[in-house]
Structure formats: C-alpha cells, structure tokens
Amino acid sequence: MLTSCGTAKKVRINTSKTSTSQAITKQTQSPFEVPKPSAPTTKITNKDRALAYIETFAPIAQQEMRIYKIPASITLAQGLLESAIGQGRLAQEANNHFGIKCHKEWTGKQIFHDDDAKGECFRVYEDAKESYRDHSLFLKTRSRYDFLFDIKSTNYKAWAKGLKKAGYATDPKYPDKLIDLIERYDLHRFDSDRKIKTKDLVENEPVEEKKSPIAPAVHRVEKGDTLYSISKKYKVSVDLLIEHNKLKAQTIFPGQELSIPKIY
C-alpha cells in the first residue's frame, strides 16, 4: 500500500476561496436500472490504480523532463507516492499531487491540511497538470536542489537519494520507496525521451507545450446499455467504471457519457 503524508487526516478548505473540484452532474432518474452482473466483478487493486495513474501522467512527466531535466521516473514515482496513487485528499480535492505547501510566494487558492503541524496551507490547482509544472519549478528554482541537476537524468537512484539529502522529505526510507516504485513499474523507461535540450531553454521561461495526452475513450450510453455490458465491451471492471466516473449508484441513462479508463 502507498501512503502520503497526512492523507487520512481531516482536511478543511478555505471557504473564502472557490473550490476547484469539478462538480459532479446529478444524474437524471431513468428506468434503465443496471442488473447485477452474472459474474462477480474484479476488485480494483492498487496495481490497477497505479497503472492507470502512470498511463495518465507519464506523458506529462516526460514533457516536464524535456523542459526542466528532471527524470520522468522520479517525477512519476513522487507523484504516485505523494498522492497515494491519486487517491489522497490533496490530490482529490486540490489537484495537488506532490504535497506542495503554500509558502509565502503562493497567491493562488488554498486548502488546509493537518501535516507536520495542524491546519497547514497547501496549494490548490485548477488541473493536476499544473501540479506537475509547479513540482518542476519547485525543484528548479530552489538553490538547495541545484546539485541534483548535475546528476545524469538516467541515474534515478542518485536522484532519489539526492532529494532526501536536500530535505525534500523527512522519511528516512523516502529514497528506497521511490526506487522501489521506479523498478516495480519500470518507470525508468520514460527517461529515454530527451528531444529538447535544456541548454537551449531560458530558465523558468514558459515553453509552448505539446498537445495534452489522448484522453481516455468516452462511451455514449445507448438504450439497452448496462454498466456490465459496457465493462465487458471495454474489458474493465464495473467497479472501476463506477469509481472512474464517480457514479453514486449503478444507474445510467441514454445519452450519458462515460469515461473509459485504460488499464494495461
């Protein structure tokens, strides 16, 4: 199991700021009730969640690597660990996948979370992709991390140990956890794409980004569809469909669009 600091603790959002969590559209009542599947559904495992997370964020981590020379494997491992595979409170409610606190320079929206101290201020992002960019800037603009950029981007073990040395985390096992994730999911395979040379970039200057990664497939519900029939069509479990689309009940209706997660 992966854990992130304070993810089980109580969170209160600053009520003076507008929450960035996307509102879930209430579903219209429909006569098309989903029957119970004839076979038991597959339980969603942490491995399922991790693979879905990696597929979603690997292109973003690689884009950040091309611009800021931070190994994609390190970024992905930190994202997996700090966000509790995207299931942590900060990731879910604030799109904050790296547990980055407000600090004095932050002027954006805030969320308050019990971490090292009670009610600490953490950054809120409109989109998780912004969290990844802020993570890159966080490492690139703080002098205590300067020595990391002298390490080859293929040396993920040295990067993992360097982050601990620089004080990124207080957990003495932090480097081992990152290395374990990288090797368990073969994340270092994403460190090979270096099409943009960092010497040709102006430090911290925004670079025109490539198109966003291809979104998961979307299925428009037709009359007669059930979650079970859709799950069989796309080879995903009913439980994962419900969780991925944040459905409150096993009820769908014609015209409704369901996002289909991609699982390796």
Structure explained in plain terms:
The chain contains eight helices and five strands. Helix 2 (72-82) packs across helix 6 (174-184). The protein folds into two domains: 45-200, Lysozyme (Orthogonal Bundle); 214-264, LysM domain (Membrane-bound Lytic Murein Transglycosylase D, Chain A, Roll), CATH 3.10.350. It has helices at 46-68, 72-82, 89-94, 128-140, 156-165, 174-184, 227-234, 238-245; strands at 11-13, 110-113, 120-123, 217-220, 257-260. The strands form two sheets. It has a three-stranded antiparallel sheet.
Provide the spatial order of strands within the biggest beta sheet.
1-2-3
Global mean pLDDT: 78
Q: Could you give the order of the helices and strands?
A: EHHHEEHHHEHHE
CATH class value of the largest domain: Mainly Alpha
Overall 3D geometry?
Answer: globular
Number of domains: 2
What proportion strand? 5-15%
Judged by helices, strands and strand pairing, the structural class is mainly alpha
Rg on CA atoms, Å: 20 Å
CATH architecture of the largest domain: Orthogonal Bundle
Number of strands: 5
**Poorly predicted parts:** 1-11, 15-32, 194-215
The major sheet is characterized as: 3 strands, antiparallel
Specify the helix fraction band.
25-40%
